[in-house]
Structure formats: C-alpha cells, structure tokens
Amino acid sequence: MDDLRSVERIVSDDEKTKISAKNVQVYYGDTHAIRDVDVEIADKTVTAFIGPSGCGKSTFLRCLNRMNDTIDICRVEGDIRIDGEDIYDKRVDPVQLRAKVGMVFQKPNPFPKSIYDNVAYGPRIHGLAHSKAELDEIVEKSLRRGAIWNEVKDRLDAPGTGLSGGQQQRLCIARAVATEPEVLLMDEPCSALDPIATAQVEELIDELRQSYSVVIVTHSMQQAARVSQRTAFFHLGNLVEFGETGQIFTNPTDERTESYISGRIG
Amino acid sequence: MPVFWIVCAVLAIGVIGYGLCRSKAMKSAGGNARNLHSLPSYYGANAFLFSVVAPLALLFAWLIFVPILIDRSIGATIPEDRIAEGSSLGLMMADVSRVSNGLNLAVSEGAMTEEESRSIRTEFTDVRERLASVGVALGSNVDATILQAAQKHRAASDRSRLFMSIAVIALSLAGLALAMSRTKADFRARNTVEAAVKVMLIAAASVAILTTLGIVLSLLFNTIEFFRIWPATDFFFNTTWSPSFGDTGSELGLAPLLWGTFYISIVALAVAVPVGLFAAIYLAEYASPKVRAFAKPLLEILAGIPTIVYGLFALLTVGPLLVSFFGDGGTFGVEWMRGGTAVMTAGLVMGVMLIPFVSSLSDDIINAVPQAMRDGSLGIGATKSETIRQVVLPAALPGIVGAILLAASRAIGETMIVVMGAGAAAKLSLNPFEAMTTVTAKIVSQLTGDSDFASPQALVAFALGMSLFVITLALNVLALYIVRRYREQYD
C-alpha cells in the first residue's frame, strides 16, 4: 500500500458539489437494496464506488441517471439533486437527464453500426450538429477524447463491433462524451478488459476529469486508488465510508472498510 | 415362424443377455462395482445391443431383398411365349405373388387344408373363385403357368422364411456369446454403448435428410419424364395455361401460374410483414410481462389453425365482404371485382395466416438483442422508440429478414387458401380483384383429374412441383445466407 501515498491528490476545498444525494433508498420488489445513502459528488473529480459484489454500488450509480426506471420492479426513494435540481421530480424528463449524465457500461456495448455512426448517434438524436461538417467535427473530437482517434481514423466506416475489447470500450466512452454530458457514470468499465486496455482507459479517465465529474464503480481497489480522488465504500446496501481516496485506503475510520481493503471481507 | 415372433425371440435373447452379462461383470469384479470400468448396467446394455441390433438389421434386409431375388429367379423360369398378349412379365409376377399369398391366406383361414393348397390344379378348381372367397381379388383367371409359378414361389418363400428364422436367431445367439466373452472387469462397456447411441443419433438425423433426397429424386425422375414428351421451352415460356384432357390443344405454360403465385404471395406479405413486425415490437419491447404471457400464445394459435379453415373464411367471409366494397353496386361504386374469389381475397387471408410466423420469429429475434445494447442507447438519452428504431431493429434485421423469407416460402407453398379464395383461372393480369390461380392449386387439379398418369397433362404436375421446389429452396438458402452473413455475434 506504499505506492498509494505517492499518488498525487488534489482535492481543493472550494470545489463545488455536482451531485448531492440524501437519504436514498432503493427497493427491488420487496428487497431493500440500498439504505440511507448520503453522498456529495464534487465537480471535476473522479469518485470511486468500491465494495463487495451485490453491495449496491452499481444500483446506486444507476439511480444517478434514472436508468433504474427501465427496470419495472425497481423503486427509488429519497432526494438526488444535480446542480441543485431534483432529478426525480415529475417535471424532469429522464431522457433529457441521461443526455446530461452519460454512462459507460461494464461490457463494451457498441451498436451494430459503423464507428462513425456509433459516435454520431447521440449528437444526431439530440440535434447537436446542424451540418455534416459540424457532426464530423464532433465525432473527431469525441474520438480524440476517447483516446481512440488514431487507431480508427482510417476506418470510420468499419463496424464498431469489429474492434478489440479495449477499443470497443474506448469507443463507448467516446460515444458517451459525444453528447457533451456534465457527469460521466462508469459501471466497472475495465472488468472485461486486459491490463493494457485497462491502463489506457484509466489514463483516459484521468484526462476526462478536466471536463467532467466522473463516477466509477470498480471491483479493483488498486484501480480506485489509481484513478479516483474520492472513494465511497458500500457494504450490504449501506454507504459505510466516504472520503478522500488516500485517507480511505491508508487510514479508514470504519472497521469494515479496513477489513475490506486489507482483504478480510468481500 | 412369423416375423413378429422372430423379433420377440431376438428381444428375449437380448434381455437374457442383459442379465447374464451384468451378473458376469459383477462376478468378474468380485461383487464390487467399483472394480469395473463401467457401471454394471452398461455391460448389460452392451450385451443387449450385440444380440439385438445386427440380427434385426439382418431380418429387415432379408425381408426387403430376398423376395426380390425369389421373384427374379421364378420370373426367369416362365417362358417368354407363355406371357399373355397385352401383359408383361411384371404383371404376371404380380399375379404369381398374389396367388401365392392368397393360397397361404386360404390355408391360415381354414378355407383349404395345407394338402389341398399343394395339390390344387387349374383343371379341376377355379382358383380365382376359391381365392375370392377368402378375400383375395385377382384381375384375371389363373392359368396353369401362373399357378405352377405360384407354387414354386410358395415353396421358395417358405424355405427362405425358415432360413431367415434360423439365421437371425443364430446371429442373435452369436452376438450374445461374443458379448459374454468380452465382458470382463476392464472391458470398456460404457464407450461401446455410447458409440452405439451416437450411431442411433446419426441415424435419426439421416432420416430427414434421406427423405428429402427421396422426395427430390422422385420429383426429378417424373419431371425428366415430362420434359421427354413436352418441350421445355414451351413449358417455361408459353404464357397460356389451358390443359385439355384430350390429346391435342393443351397449352401448358408456367408463366400465368407463377405470376399468380407471386402476386398472391406479395399481397400476403404486404399484410403479414408490417402487422407481424409491429406486433412483435409491441410484444418484445412494450408489453408488460402479463400481457405478453397472454398475448403471445394467443397470437401463435393463429399458426395452429388448419389452412382449410382459413380457406373457408376466405370463401364465406372475406370474398363477399370485398365484393360488397369493390364489386358491382358496392360501397365504392367501382366494378373491379366480379366474384368473391380473387387475388385480394386469398392474399389477405394468407397474410393473416402468416402474421404469427413473422411475429413469433421476430419477437424471439428482438428478444435476443442484448439488453446492454438498449442500455447503451438509453444511457445516451435516447427515447425508447429511438432505441428500437435505431439500435434494436438494425441489430435484429438479419433475423427479421430471415423470418420474412421463411414466411414467403410458406406463402408460395400454400394451397388450400388459394383453391378456395383465389379461384381456378390461370391468368396473367395486374388486377388484384381478378381470380387467379397458383402453381400449387394446379398441381392438385392436374393430379386429381381422371387423365392417364403417363400423359403430359398429369406429368406436368411434377414439373410444376419441381419448379416450386427450386424456388422455395432458393428462398430458404437466401434466408439462411442472410441470417448467417449479417448476424451479429453476441456472446
């Protein structure tokens, strides 16, 4: 754990809160999946959610862009605000919300379309480009942001499903940033990738921090330590501890966090 | 010995072998099944297979081939000049075997003694009458030559039957002995039995393939026969279909029938594809599990309705309804339709019949599109309908095209609805309210007429069938190709 201390942590005190969740409860049918979660996620930082399988971290992540609405039996209670606006308010259109809160999934899921069309999908739906040239520009910018432009610039017409796993995941990240979201949610984005692809994606996450607030769910504590500034530890549907990453990993206040990090539970 | 008892005997030997080998295996392992290579039942099953499979195979081969050999050897003894005028050796041999079987039947029913049946003579007895009394009908009087041949036939058959019984049971016992001698603790009985199971599975798979092959060959030979007496160019390029059952004046052109087939199929697909596809999208994407559990089986019931019932529906309901709209003095004031039977009538009803094909297959295909794909699209901020139109349907498209092509080949092969809904007039016309007919309907009418089976008017049915077969085969191959070529590999 020595290397963790060497990671640079810049968490200034004057950062502004992007997402604030208070007293969130999630039910799957009769199961109470998430209890009393309070989290404040800062703008332009990477926040990692860690915890054992089934602890509710992915479920909570999906609350932040109302993806849980697509599951019939799922019910969310509590107060989640992005920039002070309640996203579960009746007046909020979940479709609009998801354009603002992009998401990258565990398994790379490019659409069965060309690389270009994969990235252009969001901008086309939301009418972000007024001309072909403008769309080309957005696609190029997004692919550059996804750190995949150099690998695919010569074959934008090739199907996105033909890329390698790591490339597919970066394509999905490019696709997510193409709609200019303010928050990027990542649900175990590296779990299906090999170490080299993982390193590329992690590097990318660090760059994305310049423009977005990134929330990443991960099983790998090393990954959380490497990429995040803040870490939240979930256990059995509860948020056990939330704080600055270095502090969580080196000096956790809760006994369960310490047990999990040192490998005794989980 | 009757065949039934031979089979029983062989099976009995098999069952005894099962018990013997099972206990022998146990004994050789010192009573402890752990010392055996396989479970004890495998040794038993192995013995059963050894003493049953080969003997039964021999039995069936004997039953199929030996009578042919007997016929041939007896046929050779009939002198050329004894074959009656206008008859042939084949016809005579048919009589011979019928007399031979008839005598056997008469003996077994007690109408004749064994002695009598051996000594019966055409000079003293009317054999035809005697056999008719036990229910064997003969086409002509039995003359001495036939009776003599029939007696030889009986003797040869009896001999063959005896040899067969001995051979089969001996083979069965030999198999049992072989299995016994091989049964030891380290004999790999399980591998042998599993190899036999594999052979059985292969045989099951071959049945379908071989049957298809047989159907194609029988079609092919008759088609060749037809083209030998009818010019192929006339069949393919003549635009008139008017078979007359006399010798002259028949025109047998494929074109009007093919056009009718395609026209009706197109109307049917124009109904079935949109309706079926929309139904599938609703069921797969929008319907709640409750509605789905109720609506999907209900839709699939449509596929279970016999086509003759659809035909009745076309004839009694849809036809008159269409006439009341498009017919003389109808609602629309046009006179497009003269009778209830029309391309439109058959096409609409056939379309309804095809809806469950399209919807059920498409529904399965849409459901097979991974949820991750939908999540990806929804996560970007697409609405449900954008997701369906731009992600789910393109991903499912190859499968949907396959479903549509399968429905198309169903439509092309459909007969009953056409016979009852579209009429029987072969016509090349663009008016969908006119009666037309299809290839399948004409195959039925050509073969069920009372024309000579060797005439071109009857044989043309096979050429029509072959054309249809080639077309639907091509459609199916195309469907398979599209599905394979463009299917996204999801894991």
UniProtKB/TrEMBL annotation, chain A:
<dbReference type="InterPro" id="IPR003439">
    <property type="entry name" value="ABC_transporter-like_ATP-bd"/>
</dbReference>
<dbReference type="GO" id="GO:0005315">
    <property type="term" value="F:phosphate transmembrane transporter activity"/>
</dbReference>
<keyword id="KW-0472">Membrane</keyword>
<keyword id="KW-0813">Transport</keyword>
<dbReference type="GO" id="GO:0016887">
    <property type="term" value="F:ATP hydrolysis activity"/>
</dbReference>
<dbReference type="GO" id="GO:0035435">
    <property type="term" value="P:phosphate ion transmembrane transport"/>
</dbReference>
<dbReference type="InterPro" id="IPR017871">
    <property type="entry name" value="ABC_transporter-like_CS"/>
</dbReference>
<feature type="domain" description="ABC transporter">
    <location>
        <begin position="19"/>
        <end position="261"/>
    </location>
</feature>
<keyword id="KW-0067">ATP-binding</keyword>
<comment type="function">
    <text>Part of the ABC transporter complex PstSACB involved in phosphate import. Responsible for energy coupling to the transport system.</text>
</comment>
<keyword id="KW-1278">Translocase</keyword>
<dbReference type="InterPro" id="IPR003593">
    <property type="entry name" value="AAA+_ATPase"/>
</dbReference>
<dbReference type="GO" id="GO:0005886">
    <property type="term" value="C:plasma membrane"/>
</dbReference>
<dbReference type="GO" id="GO:0005524">
    <property type="term" value="F:ATP binding"/>
</dbReference>
<dbReference type="InterPro" id="IPR027417">
    <property type="entry name" value="P-loop_NTPase"/>
</dbReference>
<protein>
    <submittedName>
        <fullName>Phosphate ABC transporter ATP-binding protein</fullName>
    </submittedName>
</protein>
<keyword id="KW-1003">Cell membrane</keyword>
<dbReference type="InterPro" id="IPR005670">
    <property type="entry name" value="PstB-like"/>
</dbReference>
<keyword id="KW-0592">Phosphate transport</keyword>
<dbReference type="Pfam" id="PF00005">
    <property type="entry name" value="ABC_tran"/>
</dbReference>
<keyword id="KW-0547">Nucleotide-binding</keyword>
From TrEMBL, chain B:
<feature type="transmembrane region" description="Helical">
    <location>
        <begin position="391"/>
        <end position="412"/>
    </location>
</feature>
<dbReference type="GO" id="GO:0005886">
    <property type="term" value="C:plasma membrane"/>
</dbReference>
<feature type="transmembrane region" description="Helical">
    <location>
        <begin position="305"/>
        <end position="327"/>
    </location>
</feature>
<comment type="function">
    <text>Part of the binding-protein-dependent transport system for phosphate; probably responsible for the translocation of the substrate across the membrane.</text>
</comment>
<protein>
    <recommendedName>
        <fullName>Phosphate transport system permease protein</fullName>
    </recommendedName>
</protein>
<keyword id="KW-0472">Membrane</keyword>
<feature type="transmembrane region" description="Helical">
    <location>
        <begin position="162"/>
        <end position="179"/>
    </location>
</feature>
<keyword id="KW-0592">Phosphate transport</keyword>
<feature type="transmembrane region" description="Helical">
    <location>
        <begin position="45"/>
        <end position="70"/>
    </location>
</feature>
<dbReference type="InterPro" id="IPR011864">
    <property type="entry name" value="Phosphate_PstC"/>
</dbReference>
<keyword id="KW-1003">Cell membrane</keyword>
<dbReference type="InterPro" id="IPR022182">
    <property type="entry name" value="PstC_N"/>
</dbReference>
<feature type="transmembrane region" description="Helical">
    <location>
        <begin position="262"/>
        <end position="284"/>
    </location>
</feature>
<dbReference type="InterPro" id="IPR000515">
    <property type="entry name" value="MetI-like"/>
</dbReference>
<keyword id="KW-1133">Transmembrane helix</keyword>
<keyword id="KW-0812">Transmembrane</keyword>
<keyword id="KW-0813">Transport</keyword>
<feature type="domain" description="ABC transmembrane type-1">
    <location>
        <begin position="258"/>
        <end position="479"/>
    </location>
</feature>
<keyword id="KW-0997">Cell inner membrane</keyword>
<dbReference type="GO" id="GO:0005315">
    <property type="term" value="F:phosphate transmembrane transporter activity"/>
</dbReference>
<feature type="transmembrane region" description="Helical">
    <location>
        <begin position="339"/>
        <end position="358"/>
    </location>
</feature>
<dbReference type="Pfam" id="PF12501">
    <property type="entry name" value="DUF3708"/>
</dbReference>
